[in-house]
Write a structure and sequence with these properties.
The structure is a homodimer of 428-residue chains. Chain A contains twelve helices and 16 strands. The longest helix of chain A is centred in the middle third of the chain and has 29 residues, at 235-263. In chain A, the strands form three sheets. Chain A has an eight-stranded mixed sheet, with helices on both faces. A five-stranded mixed beta barrel of chain A has the order 1-2-3-5-4. In chain A, helix 5 runs antiparallel to helix 7. Chain A is 30% helix and 25% strand. With 428 residues, the first copy, chain A, is an alpha+beta fold. The first copy, chain A, has two domains: 6-100, OB fold (Dihydrolipoamide Acetyltransferase, E2P), CATH 2.40.50.140; 127-416, Bira Bifunctional Protein, Domain 2 (BirA Bifunctional Protein, domain 2, 2-Layer Sandwich), CATH 3.30.930. Chain A has helices spanning 6-10, 53-59, 113-118, 120-123, 127-149, 188-196, 235-263, 280-289, 302-312, 362-371, 380-387, 400-407, and strands spanning 18-30, 35-41, 44-50, 67-74, 85-95, 153-154, 160-161, 173-176, 179-183, 201-209, 222-231, 277-279, 315-319, 342-347, 350-357, 393-399. In chain A, a hairpin with a 2-residue loop joins strand 14 and strand 15 (350-357). The interface between A and B is large, with 99 and 98 residues. Chains A, B: It is found in: Cytoplasm. Chains A, B: Mg(2+) 3 binds at residue 351. Chains A, B: It catalyses: tRNA(Asp) + L-aspartate + ATP = L-aspartyl-tRNA(Asp) + AMP + diphosphate.
Chain lengths: 428, 428
Amino acid sequence: MQRTYIGDILRGRANGREVTVAGWAQDIRNLKNVTFIVLRDSTGRLQVNVKDQKLRDAVSDLARESVISVSGAIVEEPKSRLGAEIDAYSINILNRSDAPLPMGVDDPVEADFETRLNNRFIDLRKPEKAMIFRVESSMLWGIRKFLKEQGFVEVHSPKIVAAATEGGAELFPVQYFEKKAYLNQSPQLYKEILMSAGLDRVFEVGPAFRAEEHNTPRHLNEFTSVDIEVSFADHEDVMGILENAIGQGIKQVKEDLGGELEALSLRMPEARVPFPRITYERCLEELSRDGINVNFGEDLSPEQLRLLGDRMGGFYFITKWPSSLRPFYTMPDPERPEITNSFDLQFREKEITSGAQRVHDPKMLEQRFRAKGLNPTDFEFYIKAFRYGMPPHAGWGLGLERLVMILLDLPNIREATLFPRDRTRVVP
Amino acid sequence: MQRTYIGDILRGRANGREVTVAGWAQDIRNLKNVTFIVLRDSTGRLQVNVKDQKLRDAVSDLARESVISVSGAIVEEPKSRLGAEIDAYSINILNRSDAPLPMGVDDPVEADFETRLNNRFIDLRKPEKAMIFRVESSMLWGIRKFLKEQGFVEVHSPKIVAAATEGGAELFPVQYFEKKAYLNQSPQLYKEILMSAGLDRVFEVGPAFRAEEHNTPRHLNEFTSVDIEVSFADHEDVMGILENAIGQGIKQVKEDLGGELEALSLRMPEARVPFPRITYERCLEELSRDGINVNFGEDLSPEQLRLLGDRMGGFYFITKWPSSLRPFYTMPDPERPEITNSFDLQFREKEITSGAQRVHDPKMLEQRFRAKGLNPTDFEFYIKAFRYGMPPHAGWGLGLERLVMILLDLPNIREATLFPRDRTRVVP
């Protein structure tokens, strides 16, 4: 179907005066001599003026949100509030909507979140909701483009696995024919194996699954994980890659969507690379100056992170976390094994992601398994890759929905997820 | 770590004469006055000459495939068969390998496939095996780049679902807290819902899961599905997008890897757009001229496809398949409902992918469910999106591993899968 996007008409970029547009009849008003239709497509809205009586009869009782195509002439100097008008020559009804709608597209009062998620196909017709996913797509494109330029290979690791990444609970069981298997919590073990395989620098974008029992506005049971792993690299190297990837992602969003974001009152933060670094121990000192005492080895509470966030501003790294707070695969500092070559990337008080240099010595790895109460024999398929030539390596993993939630300052991670999966929700 | 890739030295693109290289000691030979090490990284191999006695002592009993870094001087006119040499000043042993290796990297006789898959971290150290995944990554980049230029939004739909896409068996059950759920076979229903949501044109790259009982060289139980869906489009529109996406993918592979592919005796076919089209019924006529009678409604057998493939050459579309051979969501031809607005993309005798215009009318959709023996109430979350303004739409879905297997003419789809999942294999 040859059609013109409404956005091109609004911006005066349509070819010619006669066009065919297609979309949803968001509003239909019958006046004495004319019927007005507000027509919406993915790029904007315009007013359709229907004067011909036969056409008016055809559309006068059309339900809102029906899908139509309209051929007509662009009105040269439209007075309508939408900024563009078409005088209709012909109208084709492509799919009639039922009435009433389960929720409105343009209601002054927003439906409750459950209703919105149950009717996501209507919720996303609101430009400010759809825009979140355009941002997510652009952000990801910017990150991928940067990683490709840096020589990364995009890989796909299995999501059905026999062993738990972090050995913990929080696993969804899968019946894999006669075997018991699980949904993978993270591609961590696989991307590390690929370092032993010599792929040098890999990234993966794919789903990860966590059977967390508690619903919060910040957690999903299924999310999109963006992971990298780099050989012959340490935590400093991959912090550099991370800050540049985020910076390029934000740049891409502004390039692709800048004007539209502003029009919807959405804003992306500035990312000035390099981001400041502060060690975990320095954080404790800063807090103690405010009279807050945190013992070495304790995690930082949301309130403490808020204080630090106020001081540090936008993006910053907290580095060198205690070993006790980090998973088995995190490399201890060679000089001081009670701390690790690790980092969290923060935006104000919020954690965007974490990463580290990894243990590459198989004996140290087995010790770390045992120290964390895990049985190395359960991870033989993984440790084996360390025994026959595993290079030093480092990496990070980033939840895409969480990143977008934080950058766009959304109140709930489900806003950045098309069809969220949580403690109770597995439909739609 | 500051290091130089071996590939840059081989191509004379290293900065300066003194370099640090890092990788795997593939071979170590002790001669009278010198020790030779064949050092391999992800970009190539070179010879390290170790003359200093202290260094020789340190590496003389080093196990093959140990990971080392070497600082030294590039030899100006190397006589070695590898094309580049370094005289070592210093050697750093980063991780010692155990011996013997579970399989060789450079053995004249290849290990059997099971051993290779069990030790994928060694198997992929062979450049011709790793290259398959570089091709996959480049191919995907080329396809994504084209789709982005065409205005597509990249999306992520849930993999844990409550309903079966095609209603069939072949589903892996997941225990989702107290609920029974499944791993999704395809993002089909979700990408269609997103058309009702007004996202206009979307694509997704993600895992899909099929609990097929039988092992074949062409099937995986978990694979990477590349899916698109386009609003206000029919099968012809998305065939155009498909042939261009494949064409751009192949172009990207040649751009990124052309010379290296040739060096490894791997070849990508030419893609001359537009690809020829032939209808299913025309295929039957062609076959009957060869004395082969296929009744309308029967699928084409591998032998019949081989005959057609010989006649049609490389890429071609078979269009307008019978309704009985297509899933419920396929749009019947409005003039002749016994055939559909559908297509398969073939490469010689092999099917790369299939796609179609979809049913958008909710009543027709319910009829099609019933005609296929499915209960529409099981799909209420999906049909609902059709009742309140679903535009006409079309799309396709493509298995990435299958595409790469076909284009590189690999004997088994597992060759194009890092860690395959099949009837018996869920590790590593």
